[in-house]
C-alpha cells in the first residue's frame, strides 16, 4: 500500500484510478480477503495511467462543424441545395406500423433528361435518389447543417390517439355492437 499511494498522488489525472485501487484495498481489509486489483492498472506506470485517463474523457469541439469540403460532393450541389425533413407516410399496402416513426430527408429535384439511346431517365445529381432516415428531427437538422444544406421541416409529428378497447366490448349489448341477421 505504501508503494501505490505515492505513485498515484503525483498526477491529478490518476485520481479516479487511485480511488478505485484504494477502495478495493479497503474492502479487502474489512473482509480479510486479498484485494482484487486490475493487473493492467497495478503494473502500469503513472504516465500510462495519465494517458488512459485522458483518452477516456470526452472531446468537445467549440466551433461549428462543417464537413461539406470533405464529402466529395461538387460545390454546386452543396451550396444551393434545399432539404425537406419529413415523416414518410405509411405504406398503404402494409398493415404494420414498423417504419412510421422515422424522419427522412429528401432533396429538391434537379434537371433530368432522357437518354436518347436507351430511353433511360438520367441526371447529373448525385444526391437525387438518396434518402436517409433519422429518429428525431433534431438529428436530421444537425446532419443537414454539418453538410451545409438549407433545410425545412414539412409537417409536424402527429400524435396517434390511443384507442382503448377491452375484450368485454365484444360482448356488450348496445346498438354499435349488435349485428342484424336479416
UniProtKB/TrEMBL annotation:
Entry superkingdom: Eukaryota
Pfam families reported for this sequence: NDUS4
Bilayer topology annotation: Peripheral membrane protein
Gene3D superfamilies hit by this protein: atu1810 like domain
GO cellular component: mitochondrial inner membrane
Compartments in which it is found: Mitochondrion inner membrane
InterPro entries in the cross-refs: NADH_UbQ_FeS_4_mit-like, NDUFS4-like_sf
One Gene Ontology biological process: electron transport chain
Keywords: Electron transport, Membrane, Mitochondrion, Mitochondrion inner membrane, Respiratory chain, Transit peptide, Transport
Primary location: mitochondrion
Matching PANTHER family: NADH DEHYDROGENASE [UBIQUINONE] IRON-SULFUR PROTEIN 4, MITOCHONDRIAL, NADH-UBIQUINONE OXIDOREDUCTASE
Its biological purpose: Accessory subunit of the mitochondrial membrane respiratory chain NADH dehydrogenase (Complex I), that is believed not to be involved in catalysis. Complex I functions in the transfer of electrons from NADH to the respiratory chain. The immediate electron acceptor for the enzyme is believed to be ubiquinone.
Recorded family membership: Belongs to the complex I NDUFS4 subunit family.
Protein name stated in the entry: NADH dehydrogenase [ubiquinone] iron-sulfur protein 4, mitochondrial
Organism expressing this protein natively: Glossina palpalis gambiensis
Taxon lineage: Eukaryota, Metazoa, Ecdysozoa, Arthropoda, Hexapoda
